[in-house]
Please model this.
Amino acid sequence: MRPIELRPFTPDLIGAVAPWFDDPVTVRWLGGRDWPENLLRLIAEPPPEHRGSTVRGRAGWVATLDRDPVALIDAEIYADGTAAVALVVAPAHRRRGVGASVLAAIGRLLARRGIDALIGGVEQNNEASHRCVKGAGFVAVAEEPDDEGFINYVLRLDPAGA
Model:
């Protein structure tokens, strides 16, 4: 696969990613067109705490292949050196390894910024996302879903491999 490039998610990119949130699969697992706008709001004003963890910051990126936007990434960065990530791959680029490649690129970027591990929660029946995170090297923390119905995964990052 060609190299993934990452650029910060800014308001001028809403038009490129908003149509992805009309896709029924995206709506089912993430939500509708308000998702990218909510991400921009959270980047500007991250909450101080989320699910018991102190939030250090929030960031978003648009991943591109040959300058074509292919994915939107949301990372909530915690004081303990971990980051929770959410990912949406453009419907036209699914099932091609793009999601796993984007997660690897985000892992390298965040490792250079001192993040030790990426955390991702996947809804129990979202088979495509389970394949994606496993393909990127994430490992399930537990086999059973948590109280919110998510199987949580972790990817340990190596700053030397960044």
In short: The domain at 5-161 is CATH 3.40.630.30 (Aminopeptidase). Residues 98-112 form the longest helix (15 residues). The chain has a mean pLDDT of 91. The first strand starts at residue 5 and ends at 8.
